[in-house]
Fold this sequence. Notes:
The protein is α+β, with helices and mostly antiparallel strands. It is built from 4 helices and 24 strands. It has 2 domains: 22-108, Roll (SH3 type barrels); 124-345, no CATH class. The protein has helices at 2-22, 212-228, 240-244, 272-283; strands at 36-40, 49-52, 69-72, 76-82, 86-91, 94-99, 103-108, 124-127, 132-135, 144-148, 153-156, 158-160, 163-168, 171-176, 184-185, 198-205, 230-232, 237-239, 255-260, 263-268, 289-293, 319-322, 328-335, 338-345. The strands form 8 sheets. Strands 6-5-4-1-7 form a 5-stranded antiparallel beta sheet, with no helix packed on it. Strands 16-24-23-17 form a 4-stranded antiparallel beta sheet. A 3-stranded antiparallel beta sheet has the order 11-8-15, with no helix packed on it. The chain is globular and about 55 Å long. The protein starts with a helix and ends with a strand.
Amino acid sequence: MAMTKHRLAATALAALMFLTLTVPLQGLAANKPVLYTAVVTMAYGADSGSGIYPTPDVQKPNQSTRRLGTLRAGSKLEVVDVLPNYVEINYKGGTGFILRKRIDKVVALDPSTTPPYGVVPFRYFSTLDKETPVMAAPDTGAEVLITLQKGARLAFIDMENGWAKLIFKRQYGYVNTALLPDLQMVAPSPEGGDSQTPIAVYTSFYNIATNDANLNRMINLEVCGQRMARVMQPGEMLDFNKTVGPFHPRYGYKTAPGLVDGELVDSTGGGSCQASSTLYNVVLQLTGLTVTARAPHGNDGAPYLPHGVDASSGDLNFIFRNDYSFPIRIDYHVQDGAYFIAIYREVAA
């Protein structure tokens, strides 16, 4: 009997060892369902490595940040969630976080149920009627990211326990819904939109105008908005540089810092890339608008947006085409610190 029990135990152990060796790592309990596949970028060299972190720290990790490990350039990744500055990946039976700028060749596992990488649908928007803080967490005691004034328009991803969630530069931001006068819905589909209900919205943020440079940037964003606000007929293209430029004082543009090759450089029309990039994030949400030209601001992208969803203007360009069967209208709103763009389905009166 003792021998039989021993043999049974040995057989069970062998079966367990076989199971452990043959079941893929993602089959173990701690991993999450895969949304996208990707690789660690080769942009920093074939011998470079990218850190995997236990938490998605808002800022770029420094050398003292604890790592779970390092993956070499070209390593394959399973992306399970996308945050403004990081993606969460399956890693060693659990998950970890890697900076978005360190990944490349991202492909949706099931495009029919997963939006293209970097696309975030915004479902609500609101126009502030009082001074309102944007918090770093859904908590009244959290850090204040920015305080906006009456009139600012904000686009929200969703609601979480009485807080409206948005993207503030490269992190999430939250507004207490008790401070909002109302919440208006974005049309659930482009066909359901009209001249009053937008089919896509986005708000990007910039520094409040405490000096001439920031004030000039706000003026430039207003000029950009005035020049790109229009109705686009089916089949019509919008060439950002031709439509919004040239970026010259005779059109009202001021000198302000703008991104050139990833560096801030004073130039006439500085900040125009924020207009093209904000518009790009609205366009990305609409499958009937086709981007035909777009270039990022180098490897790091524009810091006022999640990595990988910026669109340069000036030396480079952003162009898209209206492939819907109906006209669309581009609208905008500039408020100190917030730049809002909406696209509507234009319906004949």
